[in-house]
Amino acid sequence: MSTAVxxxxxxxxxxxIGDPTRRRMLxxxxxxxxxxxxLGQQLPVSRQAVAKHLAVLDRVGLVRATPAGREKxxxxxxxxLARAVAxxxxxxxxxxxxxxxxxxxxxxxxxxxxxxxxx
Amino acid sequence: xxFGTIExxxxxxxxxxxxxxxxxxxxxxxxxxxxxxxxxxxxxxxxEIVFGDPAAGGGTVGFAVVDVRPPHTFxxxxxxxxxxxxxxxxxxxxxxxxTPSGGGTRLTMTETGFRERGWEVAVLEQQYREHxxxxxxxxxxxxxxxxxxxxxx
Lengths: 119, 153
What we know:
The structure holds two protein chains of two kinds.
Chain A: H1 4-7, H2 11-17, H3 20-30, H4 36-42, H5 47-59, E1 63-68, E2 71-76, H6 78-88, H7 90-116
Antiparallel strand pairs in A: 1-2
Chain B: E1 5-12, H1 16-24, H2 26-32, E2 36-38, E3 46-51, E4 59-69, E5 73-78, E6 92-101, E7 104-112, H3 114-127, H4 129-151
């Protein structure tokens, strides 16, 4: 059973990307660097709200900021995003566990049928 | 970066007919995945699967049967809100492919749609971690139980 990975999921990281607006922001930033202003223009939320969301993403390391005039310019941190994706793949380990159960069930049924109809 | 698809393959020492029954029938689905499953295993059937106790914060999501070709292919969509028509963007597409292999079956599972739905699903599954942990308790007891069934005349 490979469910252990699920227990290792980083709560802060997940709550950071658990928000649809922040995921949308990550999607936008994956296409190119952005500022709170530029992101705000592409999202139905205020610049202030965007800045708050960026701070959350920054705190968990998903984005990195560099000064750009009076604003900060943000880009996605590839390594941390890769880590988040690896945690997403814990969904894959959930499938591993399901497939193991499918295997056991099917093989148990197969054995039962062989016993019922001896060769 | 591609994280839109996961693919798994497993060998099962059981005939494709049996494996097909296990991956496609709601009765069996309940044994290896959700706590409850309500759908007809026929193309176009719109149903639902339930995780945990809905009265105690559990979750119910849509389950739409796309393709049924016994004993070769079973395809469905899930995670869309119950009542919505399942499609790209609101659901994950799961395909089981069964191939006869060495007296048993090679079962291939692909799940696509994570680009759009992955976060939601990961969070959903995280919420029902207890459901998975429950299986960890249950499985070790399942094998002896099955053995007693087989031993009966």
